[in-house]
Specification:
- This protein has 20 helices and 17 strands.
- Strand 1 and strand 2 form a beta hairpin.
- The strands form four sheets. The chain has an eleven-stranded mixed beta sheet with strand order 15-14-13-12-7-6-4-5-2-1-17, with helices on both faces. A two-stranded antiparallel ribbon has the order 3-16. It has a two-stranded antiparallel ribbon with strand order 8-9.
- It is 45% helix and 12% strand.
């Protein structure tokens, strides 16, 4: 106990020290106010009909009465059917004692019954604005996940056993790790999802050979070294999201889309965005398009001596690429021969749970904060993404790290996930307002550099990939957006989620993908008529590229063309920490 309280004091000191020094302001107040306001509207909706309130109370009390009766039976040695059971994929209650011990079974079922009841209260709220209902459902689930009995030592049988067996040493180790993680976040908790000492960009991550052959204040352009004697004539320019670092596409050699593409005889260029600071506060979507994508395209064209390039845009990089294509169409510009969109949204009508954070009040608060510092901190974006899947990305690590006192396993994907980037103020404000809040691109209202954009004018062939379990760019949203382009679109649905569904090398023989005719009707109708195929979508994509251009030339060596090598891949921008 003495060791535990000493370590707890160190954690509290790590939290308070930067605040006492004025380096950190109180945080989270805006979010707390929004949660209270949103849930208050749900309560008001119910109180308008006292009869429905009484019915809801009977539903809650009746479930507890049935649960208590079953528990009394079990305590007396009789069998009893559970009132409610966890989802088969819910790993929080996998320890046998959650089912075998009557008391822990009662705690589990009481929690599941109460949280399920609260979710139904939101779903059944009458006359509630759809955005408010969406936010309320998200907040209720977020709070319910936090209050799970699996997250507390006295109510988790596994943690009780661990604590008794080690005489509390697990809690001491956990508090020490908590203090270290608060110090690493300069006063804010930065939950470690993996051991950062196990990975290093350029040493065992992002190791595909290549050269940085161009650099400006927004990005470095990497040209990768060929591994075949002949390569396809048209080069490939990859536009990753600026919200994360590019090396998710070059994570390790066995998971690298970039390495695989090079081995398929493609000349691959990849944009590596700068990790912005105050100097980039006024950099807007215009700048990211003109001085980012369009400049990268021109450099690749000059090096390869071609008129056109093929492009790939991942996530928000794909959104920016789509905007660029619409601008080029409005300008009569034909430098892009094809575009591959990986989990990229252009219609934000059904953009998923990230829309919870997007309304006028919340955007105004973010803009006020960014006005002070010039950017949005990487940790705030990382926290938002983690909250989308708190039962996968927050609470398992809280329990493992701080209550069990165990260091997390080394995992390259989670190292990348924690390697956050900042958002420049002007760019991020434009993205939130014009895409998420107003949906201007899909509605034909967006203007860039004096041009009004219309996706129907984009005749460039599109290869659009959605992932079935995506929580960031939902498959329905990507599918709906793919129907807005004016040219031919090959829509492909991949198994798994936003990352695993995209980063899925053929050699791993994991998941599946669906291919079909042009996107017509709803997504479920398309799936019903589509063909399910095992494994990765990568070979299908390579065949699609080959069908458009199968001509070959001698391999190009990075740095030997009109742009000498500046640095070895992966460059310097990607190594800047937020």
């Amino acid at each position: 106990m003495a060791g535990f309280w000493e370590a707890s004091g160190a954690a509290l000191s790590a939290y308070m020290k930067p605040r006492e020094a004025g380096q950190r302001a109180a945080s989270g107040a805006e979010q707390a106010v929004d949660i209270v306001r949103t849930l208050g509207q749900v309560v008001e909706s119910w109180l308008a009909d006292p009869a429905r309130v009484a019915e809801a109370q009977r539903d809650l009390a009746g479930g507890f009465l049935e649960l208590w009766t079953g528990t009394l039976k079990r305590l007396s040695g009789q069998a009893a059917q559970p009132v409610v059971e966890p989802h088969p994929r819910d790993s929080r209650f996998k320890d046998p004692e959650w089912s075998e011990h009557p008391i822990f079974d009662f705690l589990k079922q009481a929690y599941l019954h109460t949280s399920g009841w609260a979710e139904r209260m939101v779903d059944q709220s009458q006359d509630l604005d759809p955005h408010v209902r969406h936010k309320a459902a998200f907040y209720v689930k977020l709070i319910a996940n936090a209050l799970s009995p699996s997250n507390f030592v006295p109510t988790n049988p596994e943690l009780i056993r661990e604590t008794l067996a080690s005489k509390g040493e697990n809690l001491v180790r956990g508090m020490r790790m908590l203090a270290e993680d608060i110090q690493a976040g300069n006063g804010d908790l930065r939950i470690r999802q993996t051991d950062p000492k196990d990975f290093e960009v350029g040493r065992n991550l992002a190791v595909s050979p290549g050269k940085v052959i161009y650099r400006n204040e927004l990005f470095e352009l990497i040209q990768y070294a060929p591994s075949t004697g002949m390569v396809r004539t048209r080069p490939l320019v990859i536009v990753p999201p600026w919200i994360n670092k590019f090396y998710i596409l070059d994570l390790t050699p066995d998971k690298s889309l970039i390495k695989w593409s090079v081995e398929q005889g493609l000349t691959v260029f990849c944009v590596s965005w700068v990790n912005p600071d105050q100097r980039h506060a006024d950099m807007s979507f215009d700048d990211y398009m003109r001085d980012g994508i369009m400049r990268a395209i021109d450099v690749a064209r000059e090096i390869c001596d071609v008129d056109q390039v093929d492009t790939v845009g991942y996530c928000v990089g794909g959104t920016l690429l789509a905007i660029t294509l619409a601008y080029m169409a409005a300008s009569g510009d034909h430098r892009v021969a094809s575009a591959t969109m990986l989990t990229a949204q252009v219609d934000f009508t059904n953009a998923g749970d990230l829309k919870v954070f997007v309304d006028e009040e919340q955007i105004a608060a973010v803009e006020a904060h960014m006005k002070e510092v010039g950017f949005l901190e990487g940790a705030r974006m990382a926290n938002a993404f983690n909250m989308l899947r708190s039962n996968d990305l927050i609470w398992p690590y809280v329990v493992n790290n701080y209550l069990k006192g165990k260091a997390p396993f080394p995992f390259d994907l989670l190292f990348w996930n924690s390697d956050a980037t900042r958002m420049p103020a002007a760019n991020h404000s434009f993205y939130l307002r014009r895409c998420y809040l107003r949906n201007d691109l899909a509605r034909g209202r967006m203007e860039i550099l004096g041009k009004k954009l219309n996706l129907k004018t984009v005749k460039t062939p599109i290869y659009s990939v959605a992932t079935r379990e995506d929580h960031i760019a939902p498959a329905t949203s990507v599918y709906d957006g793919s129907r807005l382009f004016g040219g031919s679109v090959r829509f492909v649905l991949a198994g798994s989620g936003h990352i695993a569904g995209v980063v899925n090398p053929p050699a791993r023989l994991k998941y599946q993908h669906w291919t079909g005719e042009a996107a017509e009707g709803g997504l479920n109708e398309w799936i019903a008529a589509a063909e399910e195929k095992p494994g990765s979508w990568w070979p299908d994509w390579r065949a699609w590229l080959a069908a458009a251009d199968a001509t070959m030339v001698a391999a190009r060596v990075p740095g030997e063309g009109p742009y000498p090598a500046i640095d070895d891949a992966p460059g310097s921008y990607v190594k800047v920490k937020a």
